[in-house]
Write a structure and sequence with these properties.
Blueprint: H1 5-41, H2 46-70, H3 75-106, E1 117-119, H4 161-214, H5 221-268, H6 276-330, H7 338-344, E2 371-374, H8 383-396, E3 402-409, H9 414-438, E4 445-452, E5 459-464
Parallel strand pairs: 3-4
Antiparallel strand pairs: 1-2, 2-5, 3-5
Length: 465
Amino acid sequence: MVNCAPRAVLVMSRNWICTLSAHFVLFRIALLTIQVANRLNNRKNLREQSRDDRGFQFCSFMVGVGLLTDNISEPKVIRAMFQKSRVAVLGSVLLVSGCTFASESLFPFFGADDDDVQVAAVAPPAAEATTPALAPPAPPALGATVFVPTAVTQAPSTGTFVGQKVAQHRSELVSLQSTIIGRNQQLQVARQKTTEDSQRYHGTVAAINTRLQLGTTPGNPVLISQWRAAQLELERLSQDVSELNGLANEVAADSAMAAYLLGAARATYGLAGAIDEDHRQLAILEDETNRTVVLIDRLLNELSEDISRQTSYLGSERRNLQTISLAIQNGEIMGANLFNRAFANAAPAGLGGVATPAGPGQVTANEQPLVVIRFGRADVQYQQALYNALSAALERRPQSFFTLVAVAAGQGTAAEVALNVSKSIKNADEVVRTIADMGLPADRLQMSSTTSPQISVNEVRIYVR
């Protein structure tokens, strides 16, 4: 007699698994439909909606399992469900794969819908990181030299007139060296203060970028408060640079005094009435004065280099804060200021530095735009896609110029076309302000306008030069 129990168990297990798969697929189709609708209606809450959908999907799956376990003891019900669902399973799997493909291709998460913003393929350089840095670039290193002059050699007075002049010059050199020691102490304190202020600024900016990287709401008041704190810390760095400037002016006066003492010591050789001891002491004094002059010159050069680097760094970080402000308004991270990207790696063009555009910036009919922004509705989220496109173009060619064209829809009556032209120019002004907030220099952007009967909504097109 054949034992049929294992076969029955196998059939029941297969029927249970197939029925479970069918219900799961049907629930998946419904959830994907809801997800697509939510993305169309509320793009700004995309990330939160995705988490809600996953939670709802899990709950629905558990409900489906519960329904199946209620009927697991009915073999006929399971067999009937399997026979009715066999075709549905295959078709549902195909539909699910098709919906997944559509979801990934039609709704890529980069801050704007493809229907609103189109970006031409601009491949970034191989060395470019795909994720924006969470901290600003490190500030330029300050000098570490300690400027302490060698003590002046003391000598007894010879009693001659020349000996008295040598003693006077020696006293003046000792006073100058005491002043230089004080200047060195001021320099070390200023360096320490600049380093501490820079560390606080970097910590604040890194916290802002981290929050933006993880995702946040547009105009988050916490980030706005942190941005203001970063701005105050950057102003402290600016005050530190001002103190270095004041110290450099004082050292420049000391340098003039050292040059005077060196000239006076050399002129003393021409005085009459000197003895050999006077000339010996004068030679020692001249050498020590010359060493002091060299030390002051090195101090002044190092101060000038520190000030130059710190001033350039402050300008760069002010522009980066401007871009961070725009990122906080949109609730998503962008990256470095476009001005810094444009000039960071730009090679000199001839003797003038940055190259000028070859022509007046006219756009040909067959030219492919870098970015096309369609203003078919009131609130078009184009900032992130626009920044990415401009940034990639500048990374590939730092000397690039851009032409912005406001294209008005030419369909309809003359009054409607005139209204479209007015709205198109207004949209273009908004895009120009956004690009300015991103840090692109004004001389890198040209503007024009036109009307096209081939489009039904106003557009703003940006071309690379």
